[in-house]
Amino acid sequence: MTTSSPVDGAAAVDTVDVLIIGAGISGVGAARYLTTEHPAKSFAIVEARDVAGGTWDLFRYPGIRSDSDLYTFGYEFKPWRDKQSIADAPHILDYLHETIDENGLTDLIRYRHKVIAAAWSSADARWLVDIDRTDTGERVQISARWIFCGSGYYDYDDGFSPDFAGRERFTGQIVHPQHWPEDLDYAGKRVVVIGSGATAVTLLPAMADDAEHITMLQRTPTYIIPLPREDALANTLKKVLGDERGYALTRQKNVAQQRLIFELCQRFPKAARRVIRRINESQLPDGFDVDKHFNPPYNPWDQRLCVVPDADLFRTIRKGRASIVTDRIDTFTENGILLESGEELEADIIVTATGLNIKVIGGIDLSVDGRPVALPDTVVYRGMMLSGVPNFALAIGYTNASWTLKIGLLCEYFCKLLGYMDAHGHDSVWAVADPDLPTRPLLDFGAGYVQRALDTLPKQGPQAPWVMSMSYYADRRLLRGDVADDNLRFAKATDRAGVAAGV
């Protein structure tokens, strides 16, 4: 539900209490929490694309799946009922669309609405948001008390692709997974996938049965571990206890399991490396060079571990349908890729699974009272607000666990903050960081896509509430604790009226 009002003599502007940006897993989750916790508040969801689903609809490459189990990647409020624990995109999209339908959100989503800029006025205690309607080409505006930015943290328009020498010489087809052609025919073709992350290890088993042969070309290996696609214990618990109780218990189990594995890898990296190597060796053909192709130079969980359901990658390698080459690219050639070792990989199709570009808050131009907001000059508060930016929340999930675990906690805190402000008559709030607060990069993560973007991101401080925590248990204590602290400043309409009157 929205209302319209004139702004600065212009055409009528839609007015909402909360504007949610993005109709992916974060935005849909925020909308559901608002619906249940603040049913009287008006809100709208704006989505730049023409469908909901975010990541899970944008990426269309073969085999796309979550590398987190859906008992923790799913919402706390909605049980995951499918038998798959490591689920593919169609199952996740079904789950998201069910959430939209069950919570009456369908008519609240405005598709093809791309947010360009948002300007905060302290005098009005409102955001004025500029939006391009990509279907009509017109510019529209929405006035909102709050913005909840659920657009994720990467660029939806372009993935990362290095400037490979000789690229223009290749006579075959070059594809980036973020822009997968619907009509790509790889049957009987030689395919080289450049990369070693989650996308690459998904593509190999998904394409191998149809391709003549598929090769994963990696510069640096990644830690890869097999997990069952179906969680037998979870399915038993749901059968015995029902979907809701079985889901809740499995969620607790998996949260604890994820954290335990992460902590063990951080505390005992050499032992963790040995365990992962033994697992890899047991899954690979005799004589396979494990140390060359599955032995990263960094410690486990310095970057995200890759999960392969039912060991599908290893099975594909054992069958001889796929190969792994660890080397550096010298140049593309007419027929493939020439490596620094002198070997040439012939290919009909090259897939550049080389990663993402980070674009926090979707590249929106923010300003506060006419002053542009430079993200690197801000410090993140409780993992969801930016210092000096009023009534603005952003949703960034975990890099070492399921994304949605953190989003759920952020949405809970967001709704509690709204209730606190209502109870005390406040209409605006912002976080204030001490000018002498020591800061460091927002994400302590070694992945290339993170390292390339650090100088464009907000900062974090050394401790709560200014730290970008990657611990569900620490965040649960922080975000389910007291709503307000000495780092927050609140204002109400009477305060501004007094200032205006010279009181």
Automatic annotation (TrEMBL):
Keywords: FAD, Flavoprotein, Monooxygenase, NADP, Oxidoreductase. Pfam families: FMO-like, NAD_binding_8. Its cofactor is FAD. InterPro entries: FAD-binding_MO, FAD/NAD-bd_sf, Flavin_mOase-like. GO terms for molecular function: flavin adenine dinucleotide binding; N,N-dimethylaniline monooxygenase activity; NADP binding. Belongs to the FAD-binding monooxygenase family. This is NAD(P)/FAD-dependent oxidoreductase.
